[in-house]
Structure formats: structure tokens, C-alpha cells
Amino acid sequence: MTVVSVIGAGLAGSEAAWQLAERGVSVRLMEMRPQVTTPAHETGHFAELVCSNSLGSNLESAAGGLLKKELEVMDSLILRVAKETQVPAGGALAVDRGLFASEVTKRLMAHPLVEVVNEECVEIPSGVVVIATGPLTSPAFAGVLQNVTQSDNLYFFDAAAPIVLGESINYEKGFWAARYGKGTADYFNCPLSKEEYEEFVHALVTAEEAPLHDGDLGEEDLSVFEGCMPLEVMAKRGRDALRYGPFRPVGLTGADEKRPYAVLQLRLENTEASLLNLVGCQTRLKWGEQKRVFQLIPALRDAEFVRYGVMHRNTFINSPEVLSHSFQCKDVQRIFIAGQLTGVEGYVESAASGLLAGVNAARFLHGQEPLVLPLETMLGSLAHYIATADPKHFQPMNANFGILPTLDPPVRGKKERKLAYAQRALNTLGTFWSEL
Fold first, then answer.
1. Which end of the chain is less crowded, N or C, counting CB atoms within 10 A of the terminal residue's CB?
2. pLDDT of res. 208
3. Is the peptide bond before 405 cis (omega within 30 degrees of 0)?
4. Cis link prior to 135 (omega < 30° from 0)?
5. Using N-to-C axis directions, what is the helix angle for 347-365 and 11-22, rounded to 10°?
6. pLDDT tens profile 288-316
7. Which CB contacts under 8 angstroms, 24+ apart, belong to 244-248?
8. Beta bridge partners of 337
9. What whole-number distance in Å separates Cα of residue 99 and Cα of residue 96?
10. Residue 107 and residue 99: Cα distance in Å, rounded?
11. Neighbours of 9 (CB within 10 A)
């Protein structure tokens, strides 16, 4: 009998194994814990949550809440067990951490088509494989991944700048231009006067930083990871440090043909221009502090942040170079990759990628075309982002409304707009899923 190997029994691997088994496929689920431990895990249970016990909002008007609704339609094991083991958390879905992991483990071990192998995987098994080893991939298997993805497409650090929703930017407070007019005007430039710049720098250097945890980048890493210096650390080196660094105004002039005192550049994060990245603004500030400080920039006064800056150790691949929309490797089609390795961020996003990878691994085994979800769905757009983002500037991403196709006609009001996105997504998915 043909067996599909699933490497890693975190949220993504557990979901992928379940989806395969439920489609009549025999699964060999390989998990190195508890024989080989990690710096973050405490047990050998599958789907162990190593940070918060919250899976985020349940509201459809929240991107994560919409993704949960989609997983419910697609019969996700992780979502079902989370609901069965939830604890009171207001509008969020939080779980009894131990009970949740124990239940996921129990159901997978009891499934007649799932064989569990507790040992470290040090090579790619033959046949169809789903790789879901996560950000704490062992050094031995990381070497294997480098061979599969090509070494230049595997990263061990995540030093990412904030990303804002394009429609929340005040475009009247800046201008599109390329430095020295070279090439096309692909950057939106946010100018600051001397007073605005000094206010921003003061707020930046006095803002509260997030505490370091296991897996975060330490000061000793900064010298070995190019471009990793936090913006606030750079600013502390001198009042004009940013003006000679990421906020340098040289070669940039607005409509008045004058050079601003300082400029923050925003780079397109996707082809639809619905997401923009704050260039050079990787930071360790707490998320609330990031919002407060960056909204001091005139063009960003009302900016909505879909991702805040992060700096920590994180193993992930350059998915636009490696994966297709189905989470299938472009060059080695028998291999699928899921979870945080792909650059999706968050518990629910990891489980969702595992679901789609598991479904598509089963379809590949049966000679069927891969399942590509409609872009109007949150999971469909997340898979699209992972496969088509700019590979030169690829950053991990969580579910957010900025990756969805814009509404036509547009809907006024932030809450109304998000509910319209959610309703469109669920209607589209309901029709699509029922027709399979």
C-alpha cells in the first residue's frame, strides 16, 4: 500500500496527516519529540502550543476569525478540537493547552490509517511527502531542507518591517518616486520636516521594547545577519543616524521639487498595491508602541497595520521561489511543505496550510489536479501570497484583509468593509467546496 510521509506533528503536520487519512491514504507521521527535544516544547504531544493558548478572534470581521470559518467549512481537525477544548476568552478562541494537544494526539494515534514514528528524520523519505517541521526544525533536517529548496532559499532569521494596509495611507502627504528618478516610481515616499523627524526619533528611542524570548535574535546575532539592526538601535547612535540610513532623503523630490528633511519609503508588498512595507524599519518595539511611533509620520497617521515588525530566530523558506499555490514544491512535485516553514504566521494559518497541503498531497497521489482555492477566500489569498510575493523581499505573513482582492463596488466603513469581505469569502468557499 502506498504511504505518504508527514514530517513533523505540529499544527500543520497534524492537520495534513488527518486530511490525508480521512481521504483513505495511509500516513506515516514522523515526530522527533520526545526522543529529540526543542528549546520551546515541553511534551511529546502533537500540536503543542508553545506560546499563547489563544488562536485569536472568532469574529468574522477579523481576518483570523474569517479563516476559522473557512476551516470549519473544510472540516479542520485542529479547529474542531480547539472548539471542544476551549476556555472562556471573550471573543477569542482560547484552549486548554494540555487538553488540546492531548486530544489531537489521541485522535491521530487512534486513526487506523496513521502510523506514528517517534524518531528524528534526517533524510527525505521516498514517495509523497509533506514537510511540516516548523520554525524549530532540527539542524540535521535543516541541512536536508537546504538541498531540497536550494540553500539560498532557506532562512534562519526573521527580521521583518511592519506592513500597512494600502487604503489606510494618506497619499496626499507623500509622493511616488524612485531615487534619482531611476526606474519606475515604485516607492511611496513619506516626507518629514525637521520637527516631525525629531519628534519621531525621540518617540522611537524612548519607546518600550518587547522582552527577549528563547528563539529571538540577540545582540550577538546582529553582526552576522545583514540588515538586522533594529531601527531604534540605529536611532540611538545619533540624531541624524536614520537620515543617513533608511530615512535618507537624497535623490528624492516631491511636487515642489525640494528635497525633504527625511523620508520613509514604502515598498509594494503585492502586485495589487493593497499592502506596503515600511522599508528598513525592522524593530523590536512592542506592537502597540510600533503603531504609536510610526503613526507620528504624517502619511501614516491613520495607517492600519496588518503585520508588525518582528525580530527572532525562525526557519522558513523563500516560498515564491519554491512553492506553488497548492503548497507543492515546483521542482520536486512529490514534496509538499506546510506550516511556518512556508512563511505563514500564526497558529490558525499554520493549520490551514497543513489542511491544504494534506488535501493536495492526497489529490497528487490519486492523479488529480491540485486544489487551488478562490482568491476571494482568506486561505486562497494566503496561498496566493506565499506563491507569488516578490522573492527578493519575501517576508512571512499572517491572515489579513489586505491580501484579498478589493471589493467591487467598494464598501464604506471599516467594519462594514471587513464584514463584506467575510461574506464574499464564505459564499465563494461554500459554492466551491460543495462542487468538489
1. N
2. 94
3. no
4. no
5. 30
6. 999 999 999 999 999 999 989 887 667 88
7. 245/280, 246/279, 246/280, 246/281, 247/192, 247/197, 247/280
8. 131
9. 5
10. 12
11. 30
Q: Give the total residue count for the chain.
A: 436
Which domains, and CATH codes, for the chain?
3-158+312-435 (3.50.50.60), 163-308 (2.40.30)
**Which cell numbers hold the place of 346?**
500564526
Q: What's the whole-model pTM score?
A: 0.79
pLDDT of residue 41: 59
Cell (9 digits) for 101: 494537544
Quote the cell numbers at residue 102.
492531548
